[in-house]
Amino acid sequence: MRAFRFSCAGDALKAAGWLFFVMVTMALSLISNTEAQAQQSSRITEVTSPGGIKAWLVRDTTLPLIAMEFAFLGGAAQDGPKQVGLAHLTASLLDEGAGDLNAQAFQQKLADHALELHFNAGRDEMRGSLRTLSENREVAFDLLRLAVTQPRFDTEAVERIRAAVMATLRRRSTEPNAIANDRWYALAFPDHPYGRPVDGTLESVPGLTRDDIAGFARKTLARSNLRVAVVGDISPEELGQRLDAAFGTLPQTAELTPVANVTPQRIGTVDVIPLNVPQSVVVMGTVGLERRDPDFMAAYVLNHILGGSAFSSRLFKEVREARGLAYSVYSYQVALAHVGLWFAGTATKNERAAESIALISAEFQRMLDQGPTAEELKEAKSYLTGSYALRFDTSSKVAGQLLQIQIDDLGIDYVDRRNAMVEAVTLDDIKHVAGRLADARKALVVVVGKPVGLSGG
After folding, report:
1. Is 67 within a domain?
2. How far is residue 136 from each of residues 115, 131, 168, measured CA to CA in Å?
3. Considering the domain boundaries, does residue 359 fall inside one?
4. Do both 331 and 383 map to the same domain?
5. Same domain, 301 and 214
6. Where are the transmembrane segments (predicted)?
7. Structural domain of residue 332, as residue ranges?
8. Same domain, 292 and 211
């Protein structure tokens, strides 16, 4: 989410030139061999700056570009019960003026040097991304330094971004998918930070003060909870120096409130939110596995067969192809820092919502009871290993993958090991993990619309 930006004719010309450059770069990346890119992404160097800041680097001098992804662990889980949306508002303001540059001057400097600097908040971390041409690295890293160490949080910027957040929240309040997802988390985690919407609420955001925002940044932006991944035209030695320049003056240790591990509540119940729309949106969620669980990969393959593939999954074949109940139906895993979850969802005619839910539940249970066929497992492995290289076909994707691997604590050699882990999954492994997921045979179901034959609350 971004609010109104300042612009001029000169900026438009520069932006157009930058856009053309990015399009050419992306085209070159897509033309290149993606498998080779994936292999290149595994050549990771762990860089430790003179000041002790660590980062993973894939050096690539093919193009004069540097892509950086970084995260401060904590995120919206650090919002207080009466400060819902604080992490999101803080992240949205970090590039709205810093040091001696107000919002307009800061954005103008980004535009003048064709830089991209963005921040956003999730449940478990606040993320940032930086994109720059090699020749503009000095300015790029200096603006990053200002954003994370000297954000201004000027009144004008706070109120402008607050207004933009409120507009987004008002729009989300009428969107069935947003309503269903927010309600699912609220019901599943009523006394836990995960039960609160990341973006905040129409009631909470107006009460967030500048002191709240500055305090959140001061407590959560630190070196101890920082993770960094960099791809591009920069040496390990130079990266170490720039890491210290950008992040070195941050506090050593973040002041994070401990977040407890949690189990979703209300499993096996249905909640209906009446809304006058022609289709009902269905969100079904239940317990899953955390990312570092040794059985996660078996569950990942199992989910792909069930509903993770757009056109070959069981849910697609049964719900869309065989019965025409919905255009889209899917399942996916969510591995948060303190809970693993498994979701399925669809949108269907109000009069067929109950039938769709029953069918999805039946397919879920059948998969857990009987497992996939040998042919289904073979096809899933082929797709999952063959498509993995597509996650590495641009510098930004590589950096994003490396950052997530750090957050999940999977090890610096995970890229090299991942496909072998998929290939190693057997029918017995899937049978074993299905036994562990016995509780997943029931779900917390949230329906938004006017479903016929369903009630709950």
Report:
1. yes
2. 8, 10, 33
3. yes
4. yes
5. no
6. none
7. 270-449
8. no
Q: Is 456 left (phi over 0), alpha (psi -120 to 50) or beta?
A: left
- Crossing angle of the two packed helices 210-220 and 86-93, in degrees rounded to 10: 90
- The answer to whether position 8 is within a domain reads no
Looking up tokens 């001696």, which residue turns up? Answer: 100
Q: Which helix (H) or strand (E) holds 433?
A: helix 427-436
Quote the CA–CA distance of 159 and 186 in Å, as a whole number.
27
CB within 8 A of 71, min separation 6: which ones?
Answer: 125, 126, 127, 128, 226, 227, 403, 407
Nearest to 239 by CA among 74, 367, 422, 55: 55
Q: Which long-range contacts (CB under 8 A, 24 or more apart) does 316-321 make?
A: 318/359, 318/363, 319/346, 319/356, 319/359, 319/360, 319/363
Domain total in the chain: 2
Model pTM score: 0.90
299 shares a domain with 175: no
Same domain for 307 and 355, yes or no, is yes
DSSP 389: G
**3-state helix, strand and coil shares in percent for the chain, rounded to the nearest 5:** 50, 20, 30
Query: Domain boundary at 213, 247, 281, which?
Result: 247
Could you tell me if 51 and 100 lie in one domain?
yes
Instruction: Check whether residue 144 and residue 204 sit in a common domain.
Output: yes
83's enclosing H/E stretch is none
User: Would you write out the chain's pLDDT as a tens digit for each of its 457 residues?
Assistant: 444 343 333 443 444 344 334 433 433 343 344 444 444 445 899 999 999 999 999 999 999 999 999 999 999 999 999 999 999 999 999 999 999 999 999 999 999 999 999 999 999 999 999 999 999 999 999 999 999 999 999 999 999 999 999 999 999 999 999 999 999 999 999 999 999 999 999 999 999 999 999 999 999 999 999 999 999 999 999 999 999 999 999 999 999 999 999 999 999 999 999 999 999 999 999 999 999 999 999 999 999 999 998 788 999 999 998 899 888 999 999 999 999 999 999 999 999 999 999 999 999 999 999 999 999 999 999 999 999 999 999 999 999 999 999 999 999 999 999 999 999 999 999 999 999 988 788 999 999 999 998 876 6
Chain-centroid distance of CA 282 in Å reads: 21
Q: Are residues 361 and 294 in the same domain?
A: yes
Among 192, 214, 247, residue at a domain's last position: 247
Is residue 19 one of the residues assigned to a domain?
A: no
- Return d(Cα 331, Cα 343) in angstroms, integer: 5
66-100 burial code (b ≥16 CB/10 A, e <16): bbbbbbbbbbbbbbeeebbbbbbbbbbbbbbbbbe
Query: What CATH number did the domain enclosing 217 receive?
Result: 3.30.830.10
